[in-house]
Amino acid sequence: MRWGFLGAGHIATVALAPALHASCRHELRVVAARCERRAAALEPTRTAHSYAELLDDSEVDAVYINLINDLHLEWTLLAAQAGKHVLCEKPLGLSPHEVELIRDAASRHGVVIAEAMGARWHPRMRAFEDAVTRLGPTVHVSAEFLVNRPEDGGYRWDPTRGGGALFDLGGYVLVPALVAAGWRAPDDIHISSAAIRSGVDHELRVMLRWSDGPTTSIAVALRVATPGERLVAVGREGAVAAAEWAFTAGRNDRVALLERTADGSRRRTEFPGVSPYEHMVDAFASAISGEDAWIMPLSESWGVATAVAGIRHAAGLSVNHRAHTPNA
To answer: Of all residues in the chain, what percent carry a pLDDT higher than 70?
Structure first.
């Protein structure tokens, strides 16, 4: 599969480009970025002078979008209009409506579009999500993703560009909860604590409840002294936990899934270091070819966007970004 990259940011540099170069199944044909030097560093066949030039390349089959959050909608729609399949970094959309526009574009133009939430392709995360569905109807999920990013004035600190901890990290902690709840929106949202400055959520701790039993406590933070990742689910039929690097396990990390059944028996399943991004691009290519391969469904991206919108509303965070919607 011949790829084009819109943007040459951190994930494109350290994860997606290496994932393509590791496989003879993929070719990184062209990269378009604001900085030509960064684009060339990804070792494409060539660089492009603009995003539009890349989309005009008839030899590009699929586009990976690694742009600032508020540009995801615009360039996903334009790529679909150009007949390109799209793998877009999270968050796919900054609202449920944006995801609906993307879903409609995928259908209208006959292309595959998926959200590149890389952690979900790690074999342990696939096993965790499967295990959660076996814990019974009353499940409590506890998930934390706390990082310590430099407060450098970039888009993560700009409310008009899709900044904040929830847009940056919320999908990771919300997906296991939504899996447990059958991908239904929570019935009740309670903000346990919030650190919000200049319209940006630096840290949020939230309780989610569903009327028929499932509950969730989540925490996300962009700026903490002690970063950490935690993912545990407990239900009537037992418990499951992702030990070590719940959301960022990669090629150099040997990790485990811990399970306990209702009768008290315990099991530890070891997973060797793998690149979830290699799994992701291979699955995406297989899905485009019509093969049986899991990619994140747009219905699940919509579920995440709906939960994020509900939490933002409960926290008093306004939808205030500059997304542009082309006629696509």
So the answer is: 98
* Six token digits for residue 160: 């008009």
Question: Please, are residues 56 and 6 in contact by the beta-carbon 8 Å criterion?
Answer: no
- What letter represents residue 225's amino acid? A
Q: Are residues 120 and 301 in contact, defined by beta-carbon separation less than 8 angstroms?
A: no
- Parallel, antiparallel, or unpaired for β 238-243 and 223-235? antiparallel
CA 46 – CA 319 distance, rounded (Å):
38
What pLDDT is recorded for position 137? 85
CB 248 within 8 A of CB 119: yes
Give the N- to C-terminal CA distance of the chain in Å, as an integer: 24
- The answer to whether the beta carbons of residues 262 and 237 sit under 8 Å apart is yes
| Average pLDDT of the residues in 78-95 | 98
pLDDT band at 152; cut points 50, 70, 90: confident
Residue type, 79: A
Q: How far is CA 69 from the centre of its chain?
A: 12
Q: How far is CA 319 from CA 204, 227, 310, in A?
A: 17, 27, 11
Tell me what the mean pLDDT of segment 207-214 comes to. 94
Residue type, 76: T
E-strand ranges in 153-212 read: 188-197, 200-209
Model-wide pTM > 0.90: yes
Residue pair 99/211 in contact by the 8 Å Cβ criterion? no
Please name the residues in contact with 204: beta carbons below 8 A apart, sequence gap of 6 or more. Answer: 165, 166, 191, 193, 194, 195, 218, 219, 220, 221, 311, 315
3-state class (DSSP) for residue 156: helix
